[in-house]
Design brief:
Oligomer: homodimer
InterPro entries (chains A, B): ADH-like_C, ADH_N_2, ER, GroES-like_sf, MDR_fam, NAD(P)-bd_dom_sf
Order of helices and strands of chain A: EEEHEEEEHEHEHEHEHEHEHEHE
Pfam family, one (chains A, B): ADH_N_2
Number of helices of chain A: 9
Number of domains of chain A: 2
Largest interface: A-B, 33 and 33 residues
GO molecular function (chains A, B): oxidoreductase activity, acting on the CH-CH group of donors, NAD or NADP as acceptor
CATH topology of the largest domain in chain A: Quinone Oxidoreductase, Chain A, domain 1
Helix content of chain A: 10-25%
Keywords (chains A, B): Oxidoreductase
Protein name (chains A, B): Prostaglandin reductase 1
Distance between the termini of chain A: 19 Å
């Protein structure tokens, strides 16, 4: 039984390249006590992975050189020496970029493939969905009638943020790259407006799309777009800092928001979130979101690329803005 | 009766110079209905005045070219056509940089010179004190045992912030420029530690002075010091954005905080404040602070410069870090 694995070979400078990865085929290890052997079926590709490749203190340990790249995964239990998991169970876990994983049971939880397609547990019913749900509702605190702006709006988190804000009665404006994504946000997801940052003057477009100003900004991108939104916030606005994908591959310092003094002028707040803080409430959120999906109020979309061998270039799709919806890698090529 | 006035002659680029001001001597106008004539005795000099000299949207209208420069003042009512104020009353108001002011009664309130020296109503019992009190307590939310860091710590606001944090049982670290100021913070105001940003590596000094990290940062300065503190914040830290004096005279863009993603890693918050939002509660705060002063727990210090003619160079003392405590200009030279 041959494993296929991507190991972190070297820490990237700027965008990761093929040289940052070692692809290896290895023997699958024997199980020790209280372990499971998982056949990974889908691998989650997330902007946060770029941060995990860096050395230094963050909200989670960096991936070590020579280690299997960390990733959220869903898969099937093939063998188990744990009383909590049995052969045939489907599980979510951080099993990494590999075909088979021999792991302890910490952080694993069962999922039900009869309730939703497996890959959806990496999207709206997984980390991106939880990030959107708790980040928007608990930190953004949107009220009906307010204006919510989200960047990375066609991505895994942003598309859910915007739809939840619509469910809560807000005016919702998405910022995304390209006419296709913008059309998708307005025509399929029901956003009130979308701004194509690649072809529009974002600040001017924001003024037009948010005539009353911005009450909540959910930021996935940082950089110039954060600065543009800062010029349009209303009094007591809440800015949720979820990520800064525009800055993750910088080879120079992160661009701090030059317009941050707008927080002062507008008595506004900028607050960071990390989804793991809400783990105790994940199932409540997943239940509510599954309900919205069933009612047709929340559309989940996964962008599936097939073949674990394509991991290096598929990861780059995130940074090039090529995915629409949640990007996942299916381990098998067929 | 000759008035002495400083008018805004031109909007400054960078530090204000003598060319930005017109000094004029004019006749004092007659009173219309519901007005008062005030003899201004003390003029408040505040970092915020630099912002008022710029054009563009802010939390308050810019001063117009040719208008008397806006400033907080205390003075004596010489004549009144209002039923609310009588000759001989002492009042606080925004009467501007001039010896006499003929003004409506909006924004004026009586003060009692028998309870505190007049100039103190521009400091701890005025805007800077209110800014410190509400900014620290309502937005910083310090808890006993937490570590509070304040920049501009020897200034009008910072010195009060640090002392209130001590009263609330916090470990307090001040950042100020120069050995004299640092000694004053520790020896006279009871701060636990002080960092001289002019001679010390602020980040290293913060690590030493805040071994558990920073729970509350009250920022008066922005720039590199804000970035340094961002690297040392604890989980769920609160950063109060009160001002950014290091940036007010920039001729290039404001330096945004490059380390703002520390908010994400630490689930921390950065929030702006404007003192005017608390006007309904000023008197409660002033009463509490007057009590602390009477008990010897809160030391108020004013830095008085005499002679309205010295306004242009005295204002610059703020930006050169030359004042210790609240900077005020006494209109009369003697």
């Amino acid at each position: 039984m041959k494993n296929k694995q991507f190991l972190l070979a070297a820490r990237p400078v700027g965008l990761p390249t093929r040289q940052n990865w070692d692809y290896v085929e290895t023997e699958v290890a024997e199980l020790a006590d209280n372990q499971v052997l998982i056949q990974v079926e889908y691998i989650s590709l997330d902007p946060a992975m770029r941060g995990w490749m860096n050395d230094g203190k963050s909200y989670i340990e960096p991936v070590q050189i020579g280690a299997v790249m960390r990733a959220g995964t869903v898969g099937k239990v093939l063998k188990s020496t744990s009383s909590e998991f049995s052969e045939g169970d489907y599980v979510y876990g951080h099993c990494g970029v590999q075909k088979y994983a021999v792991v302890g049971i910490e952080g694993l939880h069962k999922i039900d493939p009869s309730l939703a397609p497996l890959e959806r547990y990496l999207g709206v019913l997984g980390m991106p969905g939880m990030t959107a749900y708790f980040g928007l509702l608990d930190t953004g605190l949107p009220k009906a009638g307010e204006t919510v702006v989200v960047s990375g709006a066609a991505g895994a988190v942003g598309s859910i943020v915007g739809q939840i804000a619509k469910i809560k009665g807000c005016r919702v404006v998405g910022i995304a790259g390209g006419a296709d994504k913008c059309a998708y946000l307005v025509n399929e997801l029901g956003f009130d407006a979308a701004i194509d940052y690649k072809s529009e003057d974002v600040q001017k477009a924001l003024r037009a799309a948010c005539p009353k100003g911005v009450d909540v900004y959910f930021d996935n991108v940082g950089g110039d777009i954060l600065d543009n939104v800062l010029t349009q916030i209303r009094m007591k606005a809440r800015i949720v800092i979820c990520g800064a994908i525009s800055q993750y591959n910088n080879t120079t310092a992160v661009k701090g928001p030059s317009n941050y003094l707008s927080l002062l002028v507008n008595r506004a707040r900028m607050e960071g979130i990390v989804v793991f803080d809400n783990v105790a409430n994940y199932s409540k959120a997943a239940t509510e979101m599954a309900g919205w999906i069933a009612e047709g109020k929340l559309i989940a979309k996964e962008h599936v690329v097939k073949g674990i061998e394509h991991f290096p270039e598929t990861l780059l799709m995130l940074f090039n803005g090529e995915n629409m919806g949640k990007l996942v890698l299916k381990v098998e090529a067929d």
